[in-house]
Design goal:
single chain; 16-stranded antiparallel beta barrel; 5 helices
């Protein structure tokens, strides 16, 4: 035993104790102490070896990380000689490093379910893809030359004689915008007409599942034309020359003689007011600040070509209209209201042109309040009225009906995250909902887009809607 321990001690280099005495002369206790000392030295050597191994492993990982970063940098720089930047910032983007060229891509999907009930009619219910859009925007040459292109898939619609029109893809927005240093800008192409604020607010930022029936009757939607605008920190003014309401993707030959003028102004009040507060109708947009925005617009169109335009108060060839709106936003709440009026002339009834004039108006008030950071309750009331049509200030034969509208909508928004929103609402119409057209002559309150349908003289129509929206 002593011989074995001595060999082990000599093999490890020896100790001071071995320098002064031999193994044979040591006691058992001395030998035990030596073994403990040798064990401590062995453990120390093992620890040093492990530290060296860890250091080498870290060095290998760092070398691999540096190699990956260099490879990624080489890949980015190889895309273009001057270098490109790419990533996500409220949309996927790719652009040059100097900022002179940029393309940004956004998308929107709305999946909707609704249930509609009208007395004396079968219930209507089911699912649909209400909106599916891809939006491309950015600038070329320098940030002042901007563009936008929106590609949309529409839904299958029922046509005459029971025939269905299949869903297809079409262009919704397509314009070129030039910004100047003094706050002015010029736009040419196809875009939303500067008239009703409810229409101008994106469908991604609406309060309820969809816009109101009043908006459907009086909106200009999109048109083709030219617009000149000016904007600063507290005021925005836009004026457009175009081809009338709801006129997209049309040819010159189909619009011969159609022309329109619209102008809109918006004004901010309050020390905390800024434009970002009024991008949408949700109380979540207020960001704890308080402010007020006042808006007003006027529109006129004239169509000398055959046929009429369904707008505001029936099928007309000429119309003048105006609107005024106000939006008050506070900490966790927002209130919005507007009034719109229209006067139409040269209505065509049963194919016979008549010098008729007919007034109509609509009013909407809505508001939402946050119960939590991600949950909002809202309500909306809308009222519409259409006067009897007249010829030379005399009622037409038999007169035309006064088509009134009164409807209430209540619901909630659940903001699951910054890109996903769940909305559910319930609407009730106190008056019959009419489908417009020439018999009877009235605004087109109904629309497949909102889910309201012609109640055929019955009041009490109600509807339940639920929608899941994803944007990127």
């Amino acid at each position: 035993m002593k011989t074995l321990i001595g060999a082990l001690a000599l093999g490890l280099g020896g100790t001071a104790a071995l320098a002064d005495t031999t193994i044979d002369s040591m006691s058992d206790q001395q030998l035990r102490n030596m073994v403990l000392e040798l064990k401590g030295e062995v453990d120390s050597l093992r620890a040093e070896q492990n530290n060296d191994w860890l250091t080498e492993r870290r060095a290998e990982e760092i070398r691999g990380l540096v190699s990956d970063v260099m490879a990624d940098a080489d890949t980015r720089s190889s895309l273009q000689g001057s270098g490109l930047a790419a990533g996500y910032n409220k949309g996927f983007y790719i652009g040059t490093a100097d900022g002179n060229w940029l393309m940004k891509m956004n998308g929107q999907i709305q999946v909707r379910w609704h249930f509609n009930r009208v007395d004396e009619q079968p219930d209507a219910y089911g699912f649909e893809i209400r909106r599916a859009k891809l939006k491309f925007s950015g600038h070329v040459i320098d940030p002042s030359w901007q563009y936008k292109l929106t590609v949309v898939s529409n839904r299958q619609t029922v046509q005459f004689a029971g025939a269905n029109q299949n869903a297809n893809v079409f262009i919704e927005d397509a314009y070129i915008n030039k910004n100047f240093d003094n706050g002015m800008y010029f736009r040419a192409g196809q875009y939303k007409v500067p008239f009703l604020r409810e229409e101008l607010v994106s469908s991604t930022r609406q309060l309820a599942v969809d816009r109101s029936m009043i908006n459907n009757a009086f909106t200009w939607t999109r048109s083709q034309g030219l617009m000149l605008g000016w904007k600063n920190d507290g005021m925005k003014i836009e004026a457009m020359y175009g081809e009338g309401p709801n006129n997209i993707n049309s040819q010159i030959t189909n619009n011969n003689g159609r022309q329109s003028l619209t102008a809109r102004g918006e004004f901010l009040f309050g020390d905390e007011s800024d434009w970002s507060m009024f991008k949408g109708f949700n109380a979540k947009n207020t960001d704890g600040k308080m402010g007020f925005m006042l808006g007003a617009a006027i529109g006129w169109f004239n169509s000398r070509s055959p046929g009429t335009i369904e707008y505001g108060n029936g099928d007309v060839q000429r119309s003048v209209s105006w609107t005024v709106d106000g939006t008050l936003a506070g900490d966790g709440w927002q209130l919005f209201s507007y009034f719109v009026w229209s006067d139409g002339k040269d209505r065509t009834l049963s194919g016979t042109p008549r010098r008729d004039t007919q007034d109509s108006w609509g009013w909407v008030v809505q508001g939402g309040v946050l119960l939590a950071d991600d949950f909002e309750l809202f309500a909306r009331y809308e009222l519409g009225h259409i006067k009897d049509g007249t010829t030379n200030n005399v009622l037409t034969s038999g007169g035309l009906p006064n088509d009134d509208l009164s409807a209430l909508t209540v619901g909630f928004n659940w903001f699951m995250n910054d890109n996903v929103k769940m909305t559910m609402d319930w609407g009730y119409a106190f008056d019959p909902v009419t489908d417009g057209g020439v018999a009877p002559t009235s605004a087109d309150y109904t629309t497949s887009g909102t889910g309201w349908r012609d109640s055929q003289g019955e009041d009490g129509e109600w509807m339940l809607r639920a929608q899941l929206q994803l944007i990127f």
